Description:
Shape: globular
CATH class: Alpha Beta
Largest sheet: 8 strands, mixed
Strand order of the largest sheet: 3-2-1-4-5-6-7-8
CATH architecture: 3-Layer(aba) Sandwich
Oligomer: single chain
CATH topology: Rossmann fold
Amino acid sequence: MGICDGRVVIVTGAGRGLGRAHALEFARQGAKVVVNDIGVSLDGSGGEAGPADEVVQLIEAGGGEAVTNGADVTSFEQTKALVEETVERFGGLDVVVNNAGFVRDRMFVSCAEDEWDAIIQVHLKGHFCLARHAAEHWRNRSKAGETVDARIINTSSGAGLRGSIGQSAYSAAKAGIATLTLIQAAEMGRYGVTSNAIAPSARTRMTEEFFADTMAKPEDGGFDVMDPANVSPLVVWLGSSESRDVSGQCFELSGGEICVNDGWRMGPKVDKGARWEPDEIGAAVHDLLSKAVPNENVHGT
């Protein structure tokens, strides 16, 4: 018996990296898993079913239940079908883990329109499409009088929370995902649905190429801080019934460290009680900034 025994989970981008680790841990904890992956390369091109099939085979070899799915997370129609097929196959849907993504890093001044569109499409729209159809399914069940205990788990990034040099599109999409999580939590709580986000630091195809030294495995065989499997226990807990009182949070994760991100909040303020003159603004702003908590550094600076 595991903490997700009998729950039905869709994990996107589950053929490799973080998604693979999440799918395997959900299965180990008793969940029935839909392993969604279109098998694209790091930049989003190509596609192969092999990685997803391998994950399903591993789950089945361990006595679990899983199926592959090749829906494109950026397709409103295909993600609708994914939800419908999951419910038909397993009799319900309890958890959506939005994980799929890829990178096309460019300095902002060199970013092409198609590169920007592709990143925003797969990360931000990809998080919208599947969760939107799942949310409608859960709302309908709730309105029909059923007790719903469902979860949306989104994947943001430190790049989205603080920015990252050379990743303007990726950072903007991940920041959007963090805010989307807040809105989902506020709107869907009445239907028995929570929404939380993670901002993981782990070894994936996205990170091991660009942060090779940081992501390297320990040579001494000690604790592998960047193993993506380190992230999955929190994701699985968030997908369980035990987490029903936690919503609208973003957790940063690295190795054995779990951090609740503090997010945007009101800081120091001043009220003149009347309209400001432009030449008064400078002194007021600098006084406020002297009292405010400084921004954390943008990654890469």
